[in-house]
Amino acid sequence: MFDTLKIVNETAAFNRWAGFEVVHAEKGEAELRMPWRDEMGQYSGFLHAGMVAALLDTVCGFAAATVSGRVLASHFSVNCVAPAVGQVFLACGKVVKAGRKQVFVSGELYAESDGKRQLVATGSAILVPVETPEGYGERCRRGADSAARLSAMAASRSRHRPIILASATAFCSDFKSLTVGATLIWAIAAAVLPPLISARTLVAHSLVFAMVMTLFSQWW
Q1: 3-class secondary structure for the chain?
Q2: Is 44:29 a contact under the CB 8 Å cutoff?
Q3: 71-80 and 116-129: which strand pairing?
Q4: What is the predicted pLDDT for the residue at 1?
Q5: What radius of gyration do the chain's Cα atoms show?
Q6: Nearest to 9 by CA among 61, 48, 50
Q7: Cα–Cα dist 154/116, whole Å
Q8: Which pLDDT score is estimated for 91?
Q9: Mean pLDDT of all residues in 39-45
Q10: Cα(19)–Cα(25) distance, rounded to whole angstroms?
Q11: What is the pLDDT at residue 48?
Q12: pLDDT grade, residue 2 (50/70/90)?
């Protein structure tokens, strides 16, 4: 767990900039160390409250991670109990209670100077367990596989598109020929059948047939 938290700590750009160092980790506990730098001070020369909060937030998250895996903070509070003045700052986090949906953690921040340690801030956090890195990685791999399959399908359709268009064109050409031939056959029938059916019926049917064939011919 100690090595895992060290790796996780190094992945955060802010942690690297601030100089956070994981110095202790076991089930339900974690400790961070940070050396003082002038750019971290506020107008009175104390450690900025933002840095105080960052240390406590991070150490509480790391402590929760030792029992619940990857977590996200849903609530966080800080109490500044003394001016944060020191050469080195040590943040300690401890899990108070770990549930299935929430993890309660308390934190303390100490300032060390000339071998003396003083409590300068306390904090508490509620963290929510989320998807484990392993599960997230597996989901990403499944997503990549699906994307690859879709790309392959698109490429296959692109390769077969000319064949499909050629077949459709040939069909349309044949259909046009069919409509022309059918029209001729109907014209011949119109000349032969008048003795058998009324002229009005034959004209009406001929007009409807000619209109339908024209529409189909133009559409195709």
Answers
A1: CHHHHHHHHHHCHHHHHHCCEEEEEECCEEEEEEECCHHHECCCCCECHHHHHHHHHHHHHHHHHHHHCCEEEEEEEEEECCCCCCCEEEEEEEEEEECCCCEEEEEEEEEEECCEEEEEEEEEEEEEECCCHHHHHHHHHHHHHHHHHHHHHHHHHHHHHHHHHHHHHHHHHHHHHHHHHHHHHHHHHHHHCCCCCCHHHHHHHHHHHHHHHHHHHHHC
A2: no
A3: antiparallel
A4: 79
A5: 39
A6: 61
A7: 68
A8: 98
A9: 94
A10: 17
A11: 96
A12: confident
Question: What are 154's two structure tokens?
Answer: 């698109």
Residue 137 carries which side chain, given as an amino acid letter? G
The partner residues of 123 in beta bridges, in order of sequence, read 78, 107
Determine if residue 45 is left, alpha or beta; phi over 0 gives left, psi from -120 to 50 gives alpha, anything else beta: left
The neighbour count for residue 125, using CB atoms within 10 Å, is 25
Contact between 145 and 135 (Cβ < 8 Å): no
According to DSSP, the residues that pair with 31 across neighbouring strands are 24, 92
Rounded CA separation 152/161 (Å): 14
The pTM of the full predicted model, rounded to 2 decimals, is 0.60
